[in-house]
Amino acid sequence: ARPGHVFPLRARNGGVLVRAGQTEASVDLARIAGLGAAGVICEIMNEDGTMSRVPQLLEFCKHHNLKILTVADLIRYRMQHERYVHRIAEAVLPTRFGEFRMIAYSSDVDRDQHVALVRGNLEGPAPIVRVHSHCLTGDVLGSTACDCSELIALSLEAIAREDRGVFLYLHHTGRGFTIESPELEPASPPRIHFHARGQLDREPARQRMVQHESGIGAQILIDLGLKDIRVLTNHPKKVVALEGYGIRIADQVPLRVASRRPTHQTL
Q1: I need a labelling partner for 205 at 20 to 30 A (CA). Which of 91, 109, 150, 238 fits?
Q2: At 165, phi and psi to the nearest 5?
Q3: Are the C-beta atoms of 43 and 26 separated by less than 8 Å?
Q4: Residue in 216, 249, 193, 261 with CA at minimum distance from that of residue 79
Q5: 3.40.50.10990, 3.30.420.40, 3.30.70.1230, 3.40.50.300: CATH of 84-253
Q6: How far apart are the C-alpha atoms of 11 and 71, rounded to whole Å?
């Protein structure tokens, strides 16, 4: 074999936690191994000339007795072993549900700021916790296309009722809508599409974002000294992601919303 065109590539700062690409993965892998932050990447082709995917690569590595890992594996490893969320400020926040201790966090990966609202003493039995993703249309504008605003109020009310718990607000995620240009009618103006839970959660980009959010949420909870929590959620399958980061889910507590509108929240 001989190389064809050779292209120099630059990895993004932050590696696979910023861009889930082969370039970033090769540099991250070399750095984790204690080597220089550089690597060589290539594509493996099938006999028919198509690019090999994970199933074919697994067979290739088995045949040649090679080790293999995916970019997703590397993302998961870095999230579990690296500290990239830091506490930057705090204050007392008065709300209609009483006062909360508001703690701001910054992420080294995306430079976004996230907030934890803490109530009471968190030591002792597992406190209730809500992890909520930013939704402009629901949280701020009160859209009835989702129940995000309602979930915030119900969560804070539940925490205030027990006088103990944490509300995590992850700021960097979706707006609650996307702007789409019609493919069949190029002359038509772009349209706003409001997110529906089932559709959004099937998208690979959204699945990667859920993993990213879970890592950030877990690091904040660990900073607050939490290992065991009771999660406020109407989507039990989502909480499994937190357990991969050393957080034990002692219980799942549903939120009783007035109507069953779709939501695109993390948990």
Answers
A1: 150
A2: 155, -175
A3: no
A4: 216
A5: 3.40.50.10990
A6: 14
Q: What is the pTM of this model?
A: 0.70
End-to-end CA distance of the chain: 49
Q: What is the pLDDT of residue 267?
A: 46
Q: What CA–CA distance (Å, rounded) separates 267 from 151?
A: 11
Confidence grade of residue 256 (pLDDT, cut at 50, 70, 90): confident
Q: Kindly report the number of other CB atoms within 10 A of residue 98's CB atom.
A: 13
* Beta-strand runs (E) in the chain: 85-95, 98-107, 113-119, 128-133, 165-170, 177-180, 191-194, 228-232, 248-253
How many residues are present in the chain?
267
pLDDT value of position 71: 86
Per-residue pLDDT of 63-74, as tens digits, reads 999 999 988 888
Contact 241, 249 (CB under 8 A): no
Task: Choose between 95 and 84: higher pLDDT.
Answer: 95
Q: How many CB atoms lie within 10 A of CB 81?
A: 8
Question: Where does CATH 3.40.50.10990 sit in the chain?
Answer: 84-253
Nearest to 162 by CA among 111, 229, 235: 229
* 3-class DSSP state of 33: coil
